[in-house]
Amino acid sequence: MTLCAHCGREIAAPAVGGGTLAYCCTGCEAAHALISGLGLDRYYGRRALADGPAPRPDATAELPDLDSFVKTGADGTARLHLLIEGIQCGACVWLIEAALARLPGVLSARLAMTTRRLTVRFQPGEASAESIGRRILTLGYRLAPFDPDALATATDAAQRDLLKCLAVAGFAAANIMLLSVAIWSGHADMSPALRDLLHWVSALIALPAVAYAGRPFFRSALAALKARRTNMDVPISLAVILTPAMSVIETMRHAEHAYFDSAVTLLFFLLVGRTLERLARGRARSTAERLVALARGTVAVLGEDGRTAALPPSRVKPGMTLLVPTGGRVGADGTLADGARIPP
Fold first, then answer.
1. Residue-number span of the structural domain to which 80 is assigned
2. Residue 116 sits in the same domain as residue 185
3. Are 245 and 266 part of one and the same domain?
4. 310 and 227: one domain?
5. Is residue 81 part of a domain?
6. Are 188 and 264 found together in one domain?
7. Percent of the chain surpassing pLDDT 90
8. Does 323 lie in the same domain as 229?
9. What is the mean pLDDT of the chain?
10. Which whole-number Å values give the CA distances from 3 to 28, 87, 189, 327, in the listed order?
11. Contact between residue 330 and residue 301 where contact means Cβ atoms under 8 Å apart
């Protein structure tokens, strides 16, 4: 069994290359030649292909329009932000950063493995976005340009607002619990006037805290009720509203028990769960950002004369034939007419 010297796949067809090394395609041969020519052969010994073979380069892959995503800073240097697909381990990060650093005119290249975001800083007169993108494609990775400012969606603002609500609920719950402990410990010897005073102080803390920190649940419940349906936030909102309201009535009646601490503490733990849930969606949000970047890229459309043209996904119409490289992704739906689909 013969394996490709670059991607590690089994070579079923006649091998490419006339030397001692065999390749499954001309793309892998070009990638291996580039890596060896740059003196980065250590990549093959460091990589860990836990998710399968390395990405197979496609020599015919279309390079998306990158120039429109280049931003020039106050110091005269240019920056390009790219989303990289096909990264499998830390060796891939090292290879991309090192290969770009050896490109004339590139000042720095930083790639985050978790988010797959690559930031390249270069001198506009010495390097170009096209040369940077072409080198990444030659290595076998797929790319999509993106605007980091455009990806600063309302999700980040919602996350910050949720953290503020959590902080307010936690502060209120801690202080009200201190007052409640005083009431519980001195219940037998405490005068009704002092007990009412502590209840009113708890109300002064609880009511504004519930009104502010409960907004994420109130908005969701109100939207559901307007749509004539219910969701999980409807009973939660009823609980955190009715409990303080009932406690105020009990305090006005000079009753022994009030439940401000229960309402605010419940709200605090609910916000903890909601915050952890939103943080757990970070991976899905990163995937959505990549889809946004794909929508901003171009796809290769095969014309009737056999030529290809790069079009944005918004201009792709039904009936067009698209060329998708091996392992590539396009921002359009369609039916596979020829070739093989790589499972996710």
1. 67-145
2. no
3. yes
4. no
5. yes
6. yes
7. 33
8. no
9. 82
10. 12, 20, 85, 19
11. no
Average pLDDT over residues 62-77: 83
* Domain end marker among 117, 145, 173: 145
Distance CA 158, CA 208 (A): 20
Identify whether 10 is part of a domain.
no
Residue 287 has pLDDT above 90, yes or no: no
The verdict on pTM exceeding 0.85 is: no
User: Which residues are CB-neighbours of 311 under 8 A, at least 6 positions away?
Assistant: 298, 299, 301
Q: Retrieve residue 248's tokens.
A: 């105020």
Q: Looking at the domain assignment, is residue 233 inside a domain? A: yes
Q: Which residues of 92-113 are buried (b: 16+ CB within 10 A; e: fewer)?
A: bbbbbbbbbeebeebeebebee
**Given CA atoms 104, 106, 112, 118 in this order, what sign does their dihedral have?**
negative
Query: Domains in the chain: how many in total?
Result: 3
Tell me the pLDDT tens digit for each residue of 28-46. 888 888 999 999 988 888 8
Check whether residue 195 and residue 258 sit in a common domain. yes
Q: Which of 145, 173, 206 is the last residue of a domain?
A: 145
Q: In what order do the strands lie in the sheet with 321-323?
A: 308-311, 299-302, 321-323
Q: Which conformational region is residue 52 in: left (phi greater than 0), alpha (psi within -120 to 50 degrees), or beta?
A: left
Q: Is residue 47, in this structure, part of any structural domain at all?
A: no
Of the listed ranges 70-79, 94-103, 185-194, 222-231, the least confidently predicted one is 185-194
